[in-house]
Design goal:
By secondary structure, the chain is an alpha/beta fold. Helices cover about 25% and strands about 30% of the residues. It has ten helices and 14 strands. The chain starts with a strand and ends with a strand. Bound molecules: S-adenosylmethionine. S-adenosylmethionine binds near residues 216 and 218.
Length: about 325
Amino acid sequence: MKLLFFLSGSYTPLAREEVISLLDTYDIKYEITYNEGQLLLLNVNSSELDFLFRLGLTHFVLNVIIESYIDDGIEKILSDIEWSSYLNLDRTFKVRAKHKDSSFENLELLIAKSISKYFRDKIKADLSNPMDEINGILYGKRLIIGKKIPERSKKDFNKRKPQLRPFFSPTSIDPRIARAMINVSQAQKEVLDDFTGTGGILIEAGLIGLDIYGIDIEEKSVIGTITNLSNYGISKFDIKLGDAREVLDMFERSFESIVTDAPYGRSTKVDKDKDKMYRECFTTILDSFEKRCVIGLNMEYPFDELGFYIETIYKFRVHKSLTRYLHVLSK
Ligand SMILES: C[S@@+](CC[C@H](N)C(=O)[O-])C[C@H]1O[C@@H](n2cnc3c(N)ncnc32)[C@H](O)[C@@H]1O
């Protein structure tokens, strides 16, 4: 089947890697057929795609019905679609359309008319709570029409913004980015966060059903993380008070994946010898994960000098005094 991922416009390269990493995690074979701007089109060899609900930086996923060019004549393209393969009279539907770099305006209406005509006006539209949604996307002259794959509410990410959590820190990572970091780590079973902070990463990992483990050197962060996890209904976790350098002794094992946002040096415990602290903590991290590790920092760090393999570094500006660098690492 052919799928279209409509990726986040603000973090497009990370969003793309999130999709690919998730497909790899679940052993789905794929072939990329188009990869431009926010559009990622893939052929996949499976229809078992429930795991796609994990995605944080994809706006929506479509099961592609047609892929064409408007030059081919839009009425002709629409009249060739066998809508009964995608919609049915017992269900309600809605049409949405997106245009980018295109002067073509009435795509939504044309698709809706084509569907109504096909079903001889017997199919019911429901604009507020449809059972099925058809999307048309026009990028320049490229036209893609697909049926939206049902998703869990993306709006819930907004309810988990750092400032809405009971325990809050202004440097905490946006939940969509935290989710993408977890997916890029290819975790399927569990995640460890070595610098738990407010628990932003662990909340996202817990909500997708992973086992979660955390460690933080400050008691208030450990208590705050537990409060935040409980606030979002997560009851199974293991959060320890301690130093990231001692993680192997404290848990007595390594972990499938590590996802963390390292301290940036604002706390007094970090300031004294930050370079030494980074070196020692990251060396311990190298021995504590099996698959991949994703580490956020406020600078590019030479992880390769410690023995990591640096797969990619994603850089993005959080605000005027903070640029975050996400290091995707393996061994
Ligand atoms: C989540 S991280 C980073 C968040 C954000 N980047 C920042 O700088 O505030 C910050 C956390 O790391 C913790 N921390 C600092 N040094 C640590 C260490 N050696 N082991 C474990 N946790 C540590 C701090 O207590 C703090 O809660």
